[in-house]
Amino acid sequence: MITLHIVGYMKTEEETTDKADMVETQWFLFQRKFRRHKLAMTALVVLTIMFICGVLFPGFFAPYSMRHRFENEYQPPQNIRFVDAEENFHFRPFTYNVIQVLDEETWQYANHIDTSKRYPIQFFTHGDTYNLMGLFETDIHLFGFKDGGTLFLFGTDKLGRDILSRSLYALRISMVIGLMGVFLSIFLGVIIGGISGFVGGIIDDLIQRFIEIIMSIPQIPLWMAFAAAIPRDWSAIDRYFAITLIMSILGWTTLSRVVRSKFLSMREEDYITAAIGFNVPMLRLIRVHMIPNFMSYILVHLTLAIPGMILGETALSFLGIGLQAPVVSLGVLLQDGQNIQDITMHPWLLIPGVFVIMIVLTYSFIGDGLRDAADPYK
Question: How much is the pLDDT for 3?
């Protein structure tokens, strides 16, 4: 009698992963690679926090409205304290108010901390009224005071307005104008580049010469020329959409060139030839059969183009030819930093520029993560 012994073995993690890679969808593998990119995931978390605080609920996270004026002008940032002047520890954070006294010798206001009274910070308190996502009015803020205290974490500007509150409201304009501009430029780039690469011939030549003319003009002077052509009597909303349109019109050329090259190589594929043989309409052929094949590149281009749009709006507004007050954007806030003397004496006026740097870096890191996730050789 012969006894057969079947020897089993446990699958190693490497073998299990390799087998899963063979059966899982491309989208699943793309997501898994992106989640393993720690820097991109950290940037995504930071960008999400800025989007929630600045775009969705700026009124809730901002302690004051963006137009609320206080008596203290150019007040430096205040500290949140747990230890009072008598060196007693308190579990609830508090602040001391700042009194500005005019120095008769220098004719400059000096800031003196009034330690006679503590002002405990309250959470979910009532304050200035705002519209919550445009649905209804409310006055609930994340933090504030009940007995007249003030907290300026980023200081105040020349009119005594809280820079933190104005920066949160400015994020809504700057981030949304970047998203709207990029989506419109991607739409133009994909459509025009797709037609150029798919049709070819004289149409391709005309489109490419037009793109070369646009790309040969220096970008900043061209932005300035278009922005200066906007009538001064237009409302803030009209100027907002005009700036968005200008950014979009001038930002589609690079993507259009890439889309054209992709289409030139893809239109010779068998499945494209078969679709043409079945008389599939050109726009449907581009949208259904060709664009999904390089969607990963479009996603990467999206994350890298948004910072360019935001920097463009910031530059135009900083130069005074973009968005204008009372509209609040990061570029408008940075207009207070044009005077060297003001920056020397009040460096906290440049804090809104930190938000610009954070937005650019987060989008760049997310773009790196998307590029690595879309790379089949990694």
Answer: 47
Measured CA angle at 143 (ends 56, 351), to 5 deg: 65
Q: What percent of the chain is modeled with pLDDT above 90? A: 27
What are the tokens at 90? 């308190």
Place of tokens 């004289």: 202
For residue 274, CA distances in Å to 123, 191, 265, 296, 360 come to 64, 22, 15, 24, 43
pLDDT of residue 376: 62
278 pLDDT band (50/70/90 cuts)? confident
For the chain, the structural domain boundaries read 70-161, 165-374
122 contacts: CB under 8 Å, gap ≥ 6 = 143, 144, 145, 146
Residues in the chain: 378
Comparing CA positions, the residue from 257, 255, 284, 254 lying closest to residue 197 is 257
Q: For residues 294-304, give the mean pLDDT.
A: 77
DSSP state for residue 293 in the 8-state scheme: G
Beta strands in the chain (DSSP E): 81-83, 89-95, 98-102, 109-113, 119-120, 122-132, 136-144
- Give the sign of the dihedral formed by CA 69, CA 73, CA 77, CA 82: negative
Q: Are 243 and 177 in contact (CB under 8 A)?
A: yes
Cβ(171)–Cβ(354) below 8 Å? no
**238-260 pLDDT, tens digit each:** 777 887 787 787 778 888 888 88
SS3 of residue 362 by DSSP = helix
DSSP helix/strand/coil, 80: coil
pLDDT band of 23, cuts 50, 70, 90: low
Residue 128: partners with Cβ closer than 8 Å, 6 or more residues away: 59, 64, 65, 68, 139, 141
Contact 243, 313 (CB under 8 A): yes
Please give the pLDDT value at position 378. 63
CA dist 294 and 252 (Å) reads: 16
Q: What is the band of 61 on the pLDDT scale with cuts at 50, 70, 90?
A: very high
Superfamily grouping for domain 165-374: MetI-like (1.10.3720.10)
Residue 348 is classified by DSSP as: G
